[in-house]
Amino acid sequence: MLKRLLLTFSLLLAVSVLRADKVWLLDGSVLVGELGQLLDGKVSLKSTSAGELQLDQSQILRIETEGSFHALTQDEQRVSGRLLPGADGQLLVSGQSGSFALQNLKALWGENQVDPTLPEPPQGRTWSGEAFVDMAGKTGNTEKFSGGAGLKTTLSGPEDRLLLYLNGGYARENSNTNEKAYRGGFDYEHSIAQTLNSWFVRGEIEKDKYSGLEWRKQLVAGYGYFFFKEETTELRLRIGASVLRKEYEDGDSDNSYGLDLNLHYERQIDEWGTLVSDLTYTPGLNDYDDYRLYHESALDIPLLFSKPLSLRLGISNEYNNWVSEGAKHMDTTYFAKLVYKWK
């Protein structure tokens, strides 16, 4: 029984050798193995004796294949079939008349392989996202608690990007709730003719129960330009027209129209952090003294250098030129958030 198994194995091995492709080199050596593809002057061959090889096309004299191959010549002629050796430096195709010079081959690939001369298909859209939580408290003479959570997801493609987000905040002091706000929105950006120019549209809706504001709805559309957009760094300017509607709990409402100017900077700092900074200026069209200036900068630091969990430390400043009597123009917030990211 054992002898029969050994005999069968030997026959199979012999058949596999007989079916292998052959490559004759200019130095007289002959290589036997599985021919891969030819591209950019290099030929790949999985040799039965020497393993994976990369051969220079200029050093090959003849080729013989057991199976069918596709070939593209320098003058863009395409042929298909089993390759046979002709005169030195020439190749024949089984079943076809005529021959062509081996050195005239631009590309060669197997019958079941993808044409390596075709451009790669454009990158498809991919999803990524993040979720965060933050909280703070105080006990003693005053009991305080504040917290927040949010979710953001992004669909990115070679020419566009869609951002969806939802977040909320809650705070109480001495058992009295003084903040309960929710915010959601979208941001869509599309490049113009695959340049650094783009157009965008952004919408946001907010409900803030303890500010007297029932709903705040905003829609912005306009033009964007990337001063640079690289894998680790980008700087973008946006200029848009804004429509803002405020609906109050007492039933009143008002609409305002203005501009929306935003400067966005983002940088990947080596392997340990990401810095994101935004500066937004929103003047009213009816009165340029009625404007809002908002800035936020945040640094994401991977916890123990282990992604996708990170700590986000940041600061935000909001300046309103028109405020009620006795109120301050500037509000500054320091924050720390625990962020989970995924792709």
Write up this protein:
With 343 residues, the protein is mainly beta. It folds into two domains: 11-110, no CATH class; 126-342, Autotransporter beta-domain (Lipocalin, Beta Barrel). Helices cover 5% and strands 66% of the residues. The chain contains one helix and 22 strands. The protein has one helix at 2-18, and strands at residues 21-25, 30-39, 42-47, 51-56, 60-64, 68-73, 78-85, 90-93, 99-101, 105-110, 126-138, 144-156, 160-173, 176-191, 197-208, 213-229, 233-248, 253-269, 273-283, 291-302, 309-320, 330-342. The strands form two sheets. It has a twelve-stranded antiparallel beta barrel with strand order 11-12-13-14-15-16-17-18-19-20-21-22. Strands 1, 2, 3, 4, 5, 6, 7, 8, 9 and 10 form a ten-stranded antiparallel sheet that branches. β20 (291-302) and β21 form a beta hairpin. The longest helix has 17 residues, at 2-18. The protein is elongated, with a radius of gyration of 33 Å. The two termini are 55 Å apart.
